[in-house]
Structure formats: structure tokens, C-alpha cells
Design goal:
The chain is an alpha+beta fold. It is built from twelve helices and twelve strands. It binds flavin-adenine dinucleotide and iron/sulfur cluster (SF4). Flavin-adenine dinucleotide binds near residues 166 and 167. Iron/sulfur cluster binds near residues 120, 122, 131, 160 and 161.
Length: about 325
């Protein structure tokens, strides 16, 4: 095990400065991803700064107007059990409940969840194989290796990994905002801009820089959230990451769709919004299964499956359709 020192932060400004000045320092919240990364030697920080004692970062608050503010240190299990979340944003509660295990959800924080790194086996391989995310410039073993679990959208020759967070898919569908405090003050990052596509720099997962601390996530009120659903397909029924997942939410006039939100997980380096489908679903009846199916299919014309994951193209469309139907039944 790589050795590290552990200290505890009690002041956000000091924690941010320490992180900005010391490239060998990492924040630790629940530790459920970071400690695994250290064991796999995919992260080798010399100093861990425990942020669990920072004030006012574990609260879950209903905002005036119907939105939600979730502190970055709120635990997955607490958010999933929150009445406000369950009633007004079921897609968020379900994405959390389908993730990991009860014990992990009790430890794992919301900020840590959206920061978790890919489950690509080559990235997590402690023998240091070819992986541009782990060791920039070393190549991508998955591109022509075992890539059943990998991306079908937005990948590059440098990296074909997927983002493993279920919660991130739901937050993408809800157009959440990540509230980050850095040395220059606080900024608000739209969820669509938080995670990155791999391009030529797959070692960078997101828009954060040194000295950035996620303090909260805001979920704005929207008319679709109440009729929403998260559907996850995986190789076993629990304690497993998504092969493919969908977060769906919609508003309807009778059976006719007024507006829809659809985001997919397990298909790209970041949650993948089906924006073309969302636009074209307006006006379609929830009873018109062929119409729903073909509208969703139009968002998959630019899918680029790899050698072992062509099945995801069909599977993802079925998951999106089923998630839409379940969301529709909640209107
Ligand atoms: C066996 C197993 C199964 C799992 N299954 C699933 C699953 O099915 N679905 C799913 O979504 N997840 C799954 N997970 C992942 C789990 O949800 C994450 O490990 C967890 O959410 C990370 O939160 P944490 O608080 O433990 O983060 P930590 O491990 O403490 O931190 C993770 C990263 O986030 C950074 N960080 C933490 N908080 C902040 C902050 N406030 N600001 C800036 N950076 C921060 C840390 O520096 C670190 O880089 C699984 C994990 C395990 C071990
Ligand atoms: S897909 Fe990305 S994470 Fe996996 S081996 Fe290739 S570069 Fe590494």
C-alpha cells in the first residue's frame, strides 16, 4: 500500500489553499473510490486532507421555487432517503439506490460520487499497462482490447472509457449545477460542462483545477422532474456498475408529450443527453410505441460501437424507451 499522511480540514479557505499549493495532496470524503485507486496505484497522493469536518456541506435543502441544494458531503443514502428528493426528483433517488451497496452508500458522498473515476479494468490495473488516463502517452489497451463495457459515443483514439456514476446521469438529465469554490471564489458549472470527453487528454475527467472544492449541487425546479425514472441494466442485479442506464423525465398533456429529458449512462466518458430525441419527442403520444422507438433511434445514428460492445446500441435504445414509459406512467 502506498503510504500517505492524513490530516483534517475545518476551514474551507485553508483547505482550498492547501490543495492549490500542494500537487501531492488530495481531498478525501468517504474514501470509497480514492482508497481503491490508491490500492490500485492509479492515484498516489502523499497527503490526504479529510474534508468531512467542513461546515454546512452535508445539508439537503429545498430551495424556494421547487429546486434542491445538496451539499457535497451529504451521503448517498441520506439523499436517496430524503422525502423532498423522493417526491419531487425520483430520478435522483433511484439513481442513488441502484448504485453500489447499502454500506457504500452510507459512506460515499455526493461530491465524491460525481468525481469517481472510470471502472475501465486497464485503468484500475495495478501492473501499469497501457492506459493514457493512468499514464498519459502510454496508449489505450482497451481500444483494441477488451472493450465490452466501454463507450459507444464521444470516444477518442486516446481513450474509450465510460463514466461510472449513476447519479451523474440523473443530474445531467435535470440540468444540475455544480457549485465549486476555488481560490478566486465561487463559480457555478452547468452539469453538461462538468465532465469532459476524453479527446487527447483523457487524464482529465472534469472541469476542476487544483484548489477547487465542490461545495454543493443545485438542481433547478423543472416541470418534468416529478414524472421521472432511472433505469439501470447491469450484469447482476445489485452491487454492479451500469452496462447501460437511462434517466428519463417528462411532462405531458394527456398522453401527448409536452417536453422530455433523456440522459444515458454507460455509453460515454460523460453522461450523454439524447438532445435530438428530446426535441423530437414533443407532440408524440406515450401510446405510440413505434413513434417513441424511432424518435429515440434517431439519436443513435452517430453511435460508434467498438469490437465488443455493438450490443449497447440496441440495448441503450430499449432502456431509454422503457425509462420513458415508466416516467410516463407517473404523470
Ligand atoms: C464496490 C463498489 C461498487 C460501486 N458501485 C457503484 C455504482 O453502481 N454506481 C455508482 O454510481 N457508484 C458506484 N460506486 C462508486 C461510489 O459511489 C463512489 O466510490 C463514491 O460515491 C465516492 O464518494 P466518496 O465520498 O467515497 O469519495 P472519495 O473516495 O472520498 O473521493 C473520490 C474523489 O473525489 C474527490 N472529492 C471528494 N469530495 C470532493 C469535493 N467535495 N470536492 C472536490 N473533490 C472531491 C476526492 O479527492 C477523490 O478524488 C461503487 C464503489 C465501489 C467501491
Ligand atoms: S479506455 Fe481510457 S481508461 Fe481504459 S485503457 Fe484506454 S485510456 Fe485507459
Amino acid at each position: 500500500m502506498h503510504p500517505f499522511t492524513l490530516s483534517r480540514a475545518d476551514d474551507p479557505a485553508k483547505a482550498i489553499t492547501a490543495h492549490a499549493l500542494d500537487p501531492q495532496l488530495a481531498f478525501i470524503a468517504g474514501g470509497t473510490d480514492l482508497i481503491g485507486l490508491i490500492k490500485d496505484r492509479a492515484a498516489l497522493p502523499e497527503r490526504l486532507l479529510d474534508i468531512n469536518g467542513l461546515p454546512h456541506m452535508a445539508e439537503i435543502q429545498a430551495l424556494p421555487g421547487g429546486g434542491l441544494r445538496i451539499g457535497a458531503l451529504a451521503r448517498m443514502s441520506d439523499v436517496a432517503a430524503d422525502t423532498e428528493v423522493r417526491t419531487h426528483f425520483p430520478v435522483i433517488a433511484e439513481a442513488l439506490l441502484f448504485a453500489a451497496s447499502g454500506q457504500l452508500r452510507n459512506m460515499a458522498s455526493i461530491g465524491g460520487n460525481i468525481m469517481q473515476r472510470t471502472r475501465c479494468a486497464y485503468f484500475r490495473d495495478e501492473t501499469d499497462g497501457r492506459c493514457n488516463k493512468r499514464s498519459p502517452g502510454s496508449g489505450c489497451a482497451a481500444r483494441h482490447g477488451l472493450n465490452r463495457n466501454h463507450a459507444i459515443f464521444g470516444w477518442s483514439q486516446s481513450c474509450v472509457a465510460t463514466n461510472p456514476s449513476d447519479l451523474a446521469v440523473a443530474l445531467a438529465a435535470m440540468d444540475a449545477i455544480v457549485i465549486v469554490r476555488g481560490q478566486a471564489g465561487e463559480r457555478r458549472i452547468p452539469f453538461a460542462d462538468f465532465h469532459r470527453l476524453p479527446g487527447n487528454t483523457p487524464e482529465r475527467d472534469n472541469a476542476l483545477d487544483r484548489g477547487d472544492l465542490i461545495v454543493a449541487i443545485e438542481v433547478p425546479a423543472n416541470i418534468e422532474a416529478r414524472a421521472s425514472h432511472y433505469l439501470k441494466v447491469r450484469d447482476r442485479a445489485s452491487y454492479e456498475f451500469a452496462l447501460v442506464s437511462a434517466a428519463a423525465a417528462l411532462a405531458a398533456d394527456g398522453r401527448s408529450i409536452l417536453s422530455a429529458r433523456l440522459a444515458m449512462g454507460g455509453v460515454a466518458h460523460k453522461p450523454w443527453r439524447l438532445t435530438a430525441a428530446e426535441r423530437n419527442l414533443r407532440g408524440i403520444s406515450l401510446d405510440d410505441i413505434d413513434g417513441l422507438r424511432s424518435t429515440i433511434a434517431a439519436s443513435f445514428v452517430d453511435a460508434r460501437p467498438l469490437a465488443h460492445n455493438a450490443f449497447k446500441v440496441e440495448l441503450a435504445q430499449r432502456v431509454a424507451l422503457r425509462a420513458m414509459q415508466t416516467a410516463g406512467a407517473r404523470i
